[in-house]
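#lab-general

N.A. 3:47 PM
ok so I finally got the sequence cleaned up, no stray characters, all 228 residues accounted for. can someone with queue access submit it? mine expired

B.Y. 3:52 PM
send it over

N.A. 3:53 PM
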Amino acid sequence: MFFDQPLEVKNEILNEPGPMPMHGYTPWRVEEVGKLRHDVKIRTMMDSKEQFDQGPEYDTDFLSKWPKAPELSGFGPFIGDFYRQCDDVCLTLIKALGSPGLLRMGHALGPYKPYCANTDFGPITLLFQDSTGGLEIKDRTDPETHSFVPLPPTDTTEMTVNVGDTLTRWTNGKITGGIHQVTAPEAMKGESGLILPPKMSMAYLFKAERTVSVGPLPKFVSSTEPAK
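B.Y. 4:20 PM
back already:
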């Protein structure tokens, strides 16, 4: 498995920081989702995970990076096939045309710190998690700001579909994105010196083409409901 490889092998395909799609390997505690928030304490938090990102095979502007180790020769074909299946699911769900996505594999390590609550940028995210759990969704029926509901996996083959910011904009706020976070599993909360076993997850971050507008679609705009 990719994350079990020595660091020097993973570093051969490092994701290059900058204004471009994330492709390749991102080491532990490099990504900082907390910077999406205004709270100073949260903005300093770094994600306790390492990750691998892959883009669409037809994107010739930003090519995906694949490990070169002989023992991982089947990794690219397997992940590429899984990517295409996720893309088909998303296109079926929103009946969009040519919207590429980003496939992200995450590997959370201990000591464990929670991931900052956030929404995803794209229209739809498909999430797959292992049996460790820890995913939580904001409870919209509860006025409390920090009220989240655990979404434990019942089967490691199940898929969670989450709405992102782009779909919220396309529908002029009719469909709102789900605020989510990853923290300690419910059964382990309140424990001191918390160290969780490694957690694996895979997210397919479906995105619009770079030339596609993310403004409200005409069918969701009217004189009584102007574009937001």
